[in-house]
Amino acid sequence: MSDLSSIEKVKLEKMFDMEAGYVLDFSNRTFQEFIIENTNIDIADGKYDYASGSKANRLRTFWAKEANYIVGKIISAFLEYWKTKKLINHIEISQAEQALFDDCYTIAERLKQDSIVENIDAIQPYSNDKEFSVLAKSIRESIQNNEPEVTLDRLHTYVVKYTKKLCDKYGISYDRNKPLHSLFGEYVKYLRQNRFIESQMTERILKSSISILESFNDVRNNQSLAHDNPILNYHESVLIFNNVSSAIKFIEAIEAEQSEVDEQDEVQAEWDEIPL
């Protein structure tokens, strides 16, 4: 659910003319179509029924039930719609209207700082490989469009490429047919043997990720768009994304720390070579 404050809701309701049960100048049909277009969510779904079932009440329920990012996204869309209607109809925007618009814009931007996937920023093109870059961009755009279920196959491909990059970095050998969980297992083994991780609990968490990735192979093959499958539902897809991206985020922290150690060792080695 979003964390809109009471004051923020008052401003938004004023901005969107919701007092009488309406939302701007939308009809029931155009209201439904607009929200589907911008969030891929059907506002006519029974989960948004509240009181009279008016457009305003459905939007209030939407605010209450959906995540910050999605709520921020639809607020931004409504604001753009409002401004566009003013411009094309040559209607001057008053100072009071502009001030309210600016306040609502700030609310939307705050909400959009959150994402349905907590560590989506971990999905980055960590190389100069163009395919890797396109893959990461595509995954992030699907999350921004609230479509995690349609990109599970690409997330799997991304994690395979990412894990191979790690293996290449440390000279861990593998063949192209080695499954994802086995690749990741080899990397975790290397971390343990080289004391990159300090606690037994961390090791166990990473080992649990191996079994998670093994299950991910099945999801990719049988519940994603990799093949002609019925795709996995939205909420389980979000759960998978959060688990995978959290693991990548942690690994990036380990890798960054190790890079600092390597740099310090190189500097020390250079100093050691300088004759006294």
Overview of the molecule:
This protein has 276 residues and is mainly α. The protein has helices at 6-15, 28-39, 55-65, 68-88, 95-112, 130-144, 152-169, 180-193, 200-222, 234-273. Helix 1 (6-15) crosses helix 5 and helix 4 packs antiparallel against helix 5 (95-112). The longest helix is centred in the C-terminal third of the chain and has 40 residues, at 234-273. The model has no long low-confidence stretch (mean pLDDT 89).
**Rg calc:** 24 Å
Give start-end ranges of low-pLDDT stretches: none
What is the mean predicted local confidence, pLDDT? 89
Total strands? 0
Fraction of residues in helix: 55-70%
What class, by secondary structure content? mainly alpha
Q: What can be said about the biggest beta sheet?
A: none
Summarize the SSE layout with pairings.
Layout: H1 6-15, H2 28-39, H3 55-65, H4 68-88, H5 95-112, H6 130-144, H7 152-169, H8 180-193, H9 200-222, H10 234-273
Give a quick set of tags describing it.
0% strand, 276 residues, 10 helices, mainly alpha
In short:
The chain is 66% helix and 0% strand.
